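Please review the protein record below. Tell me whether the encoded fold seems credible here:
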Amino acid sequence: MGAYAPFFGTTLGAAAVLLMKNKINKTIHLILNGFAAGVMVAASIWSLLIPSIEQSNSFIPAVVGFIIGIVFLLVINRRKSDLLVFSVTLHNIPEGMAVGAIFAAYLANSLSIMQAFIVSLGITIQNIPEGAIISMPLKIKGINKMKSFIYGMLSGLVEPIGALIMMLTLGYMLPLLPYLLSFAAGAMMYVVIKELLPEVSTDKGIVFFTLGFCLMMALDVALG
């Protein structure tokens, strides 16, 4: 169940869209985009890049994966897909694999069950704002509430799948995890720079970017 907990966090965050009004004014749009940009930048640093460096004891996997993530999104962007949903979903795959590695360590008696659940709980709480930054912008773009919620929820479904893959193929996948983490960071940073920052480059947007960044940083540091 611990491996599924982060998915429940994403689902809870995505459910915030169900509380939104049908018509969203420009100020709310600005606030949500600024907050989303801050959350994504902080998550890229503390959830992805720093763990990538720590797990490999080198900056090289972080640099290589980050560049590949940027280039990958440059190619994907030509198809005009929804990059926000895509990038956060990508971010959830290696995060789920990290959870799988933790529970594999528990099964190998390298960690206690309490330590494994604490890590899982931390990622679950971090995923709440991430679920919200997917579903709520989709609603603003004109997608109905239920579909926006489902898309947000499905973005988190890859986490237990990633955890299961890691637990079954630990010996093969663990060396690649630093590259996967930084790849997801590159993808998320591309979306922030390309889609979100141009829309929030006002004083009010910067304020909510700062709030989103500080909230996600605090969650990552306190619970990571």
Notes: Residues 26-56 form the longest helix (31 residues). The chain has one domain: 5-16+25-223. DSSP finds nine helices and no strands in the chain.
